[in-house]
Structure formats: C-alpha cells, structure tokens
Amino acid sequence: MSDFLQRSCPNCGHKKVSGGVVSKPAAETLSPEELRPFWSGFHDSKLFFSYCRCTACRLLYAPHFFHDEQLADLYSELAPNMEMVPSASLEATQRGYFEAARKADVPGGGYLEIGPDVGYVAAQAAQDGRFDEFWLFEPNRVVHKSLAQAVMPFPARVFADMTDLSPVPDGSIGLAAMIHVLDHLLDPTAMLEQIHAKLRPGGVLMIVTHNEASLLSKVLGPKWPPYCLQHPQLFSPASITAMLEGVGYSSARVARSTNYFPIDFLVKEAGRAIGVKLDRLPAPRASVGLKLGNMITLARV
Fold this sequence. Notes:
This protein is α/β, with parallel strands linked by helices.
C-alpha cells in the first residue's frame, strides 16, 4: 500500500484539476506517522491535504488522502465531535436542523440517520411523532444504548457499520439525515445512492455540511477550520446540488444554517484563526446563533 490514496473526483470520476487550497507543508508531502499528531486538536501550524477543484464538475476535493485502513485507525482516536461546545448550544443547533426538515413537509414512515452521535436530531424526530421506526448508523458503540433511549418509545435499530444500509427496507424512509458526515466520506456518491433507494416517494434527505464558497472561507483562506485532515472533499451549494442531481434526487434546496456557540468559545476560536491567543480574555458564556459558513441541503426522491 502506498502512503496515501490517489483519487479522481468522487463526484464525476474526472481526473483533471485546477488550483485550490494548500497548506505549508502539504499533508501529502509528509508520512502518515508525521500527520498523526495533527489529526485532532488545535495546533500552531495548520496541515491538510491539498484541495483541488475538478475541472469538470467543480467539486473541491483532495486528490491525495488517507486509505480506508488509515482512517479507521485515526477515527478510533478521535474525541467526540464538538466536545468543547456545551450540550445546550449543540441541542439548539440541532433543533434548528430538524425544524428546517419539518417545514419541508416530510412524510411519515421510517427515520434514517448516518452518524447521529448521541441522537440530538433523532430525539427531535421521535418527539415529532410521525416516524414509526428509527434506523441509526453510528460507529461509536459506546453511545448505542443512549441512541435507543433517545427515540423511545419507538423501536430503534442501531448499527456500527455506516457504509452498509442493506438492513433498511427499500422505500420505507420518510426522512434521512446526515449532519457533518458527507464531507468525511471517501465515496459520498455511493452513500447518496444507497439512501435514495431507502426513501419513500416524497421522502426527504437532509444534509448539513460546511460551505467552501462561504464568505468566511474566503476571508480566512487556508486558515478556515474545515480545511483539515478529516475532510476528503468540501461542498458548495452548486457542487452538492450537482452531486444530488447526478444520483437522481430532485428539487434540492440549499440554505445557510444557524449554529449556536457560547460567546467565549467564539472569541477563543477567532483568536486561534488569526494566530492570537485569547484564552484568558474574559467573555460571556451566553450562546448566540450565527450563520458562519455551514449550509443545510434538503432534497427529495
């Protein structure tokens, strides 16, 4: 096995790329072991695989990336997502996601989520009452019991393998959700195809991703946090719509999403992005909702 995987465009298979975003040094110029310390946490220097733009479909992706085996090893060491943000802020953010899906006139039936973490959105779906069965694919086995409890009294099927949706009956799902998952997958189109088969007529797929075309990404450039070792590709409204349409989804709608953060957390992160340590600067802990470079996409079969 070579040090890193060499990829063509994960959307259209095209191999020609144009310039994108590069770190110094670029991750592909180092060894896997040299990259391991940069896999998680915060560091003075920023390191990621070079992102290039497909000249055919315009998707921004990394032509060099970790192999599946390397990713499995690295993710086994990764701390829970956004663990530094208080749960109240996370819950407010995730409530907003489900509210967007609810307003899209989601039909009943089953509920499917890839990477539900501890079940913030799944719990909202259970409280809504229109879903009769929950299919949850979460690799962290530690939270499986909590996930089942989050959707009670409805039956929950919880699986550790995120890549195989075959247990879910075709045409049974009213709402499928992927929150900050699609930009982590080496083969995003394969997952979108699997979900398409599981949705019932009129069923909705909700996807939350970073927006590489956002104003924040342009202002911060290579220092934008989503440019990191965990993302083999990053989406814009145009590229995610093109990918969904290519798989067979219709009427994709993309909007900026609101995230809630404590003010003191935002101050520290802003300082980190510009290379200034503001950890000791006093700031309120109250949360504020901001549209800071993420987007929510809703698509139907």
